UniProtKB/TrEMBL annotation:
Pfam families: FMN_red
Name of the protein this chain belongs to: FMN reductase
Signal peptide boundaries: none
Protein origin, superkingdom: Bacteria
Gene Ontology CC: one annotated term: cytosol
Any one GO molecular function term: oxidoreductase activity
C-alpha cells in the first residue's frame, strides 16, 4: 500500500505534521508513505490555470502523486471553524478534470490536531464533506486531538487510548469503506 499524506499546516513545528507522522507509524509493514510537501506552491485553484497543456507543474505533480497512491491521509488544522485552505485547495486541484479526477474513488481518512480542546471537529467534518463531493472514498469516522501542543512525546500520542483510536482508523485503510 502506497499512502499519500496531504498536510494542511505549513508551519515549522506543526502538530498536524506530528500527528501525520504518528499515523504513518501505524501503517502496516510494507506500506510506504509519501508527503505532498508543495501545498504552499500550489496556486489558488482557477479554471483559467487549469487548461490542458499549461497546467502548473506543481498541480500535475499533485495529480500524479494522488493517482499513484492507494489511499490518502488528510491532516488538517482548524482555521476559523473549518479545514485549512491549503488542504481545500489541494482537494480542489485533485478533483479536476472532473471526468478524470485523480482523487475519484481514492480511499481517504481525515485527521486533525488543534490547540483548542475540541480536536478540530468542524475542520474534520468539512474535510470529509469536501472529499466526498470531490469523489474520494472517504471514511466518515475521523480522528482529532485537542490540546495538541501537549499531546505528543517523541512523535507519539501520549494518551494511549487516543493512540489506539488513531491506530484503529489507520487500520481501515485498505479495507472497504462501509456504506
Ligand atoms: C488563523 C487561525 C485560525 C484558527 N482557528 C481555529 C479554530 O477555529 N478552531 C481551533 O480549534 N483552532 C483554531 N486555531 C488554532 C489552531 O488549532 C492551532 O494554531 C494549531 O496548532 C494549528 O496546527 P499546527 O500546529 O499543525 O500548525 C486557529 C489558528 C489560526 C492561525
Amino acid at each position: 500500500m502506497n499512502v499519500l499524506v496531504l498536510l494542511g499546516s505549513l508551519r515549522d513545528g506543526s502538530t498536524n505534521r506530528t500527528l501525520a507522522e504518528a499515523a504513518v507509524a501505524h501503517l502496516p509493514e510494507g506500506a510506504t508513505a509519501t508527503y505532498f510537501n508543495r501545498g504552499a506552491d500550489l496556486p489558488h485553484y482557477s479554471e483559467d490555470l487549469d487548461v490542458e497543456g499549461s497546467v502548473p507543474q506543481v498541480a500535475t505533480e499533485l495529480r500524479e502523486a494522488v493517482a499513484a497512491a492507494d489511499a490518502l491521509i488528510v491532516v488538517t488544522p482548524e482555521y476559523n471553524g473549518t479545514l485549512s485552505s491549503v488542504v481545500k485547495n489541494t482537494i480542489d486541484w485533485a478533483s479536476r478534470p472532473r471526468e478524470a479526477a485523480s482523487i475519484h474513488g481514492k480511499q481517504a481518512i481525515v485527521l486533525a490536531a488543534s490547540g483548542a480542546p475540541y480536536g478540530a471537529e468542524w475542520a474534520r467534518k468539512d474535510a470529509v464533506r469536501s472529499l466526498q463531493i470531490a469523489g474520494a472514498d472517504v471514511v466518515e469516522d475521523t480522528f482529532g486531538i485537542g490540546a495538541s501542543y501537549e499531546a505528543f512525546a517523541e512523535g507519539r500520542l501520549v494518551d494511549g487510548e487516543a493512540d489506539a483510536a488513531l491506530q484503529a482508523l489507520v487500520a481501515r485503510l485498505g479495507a472497504p469503506v462501509a456504506a
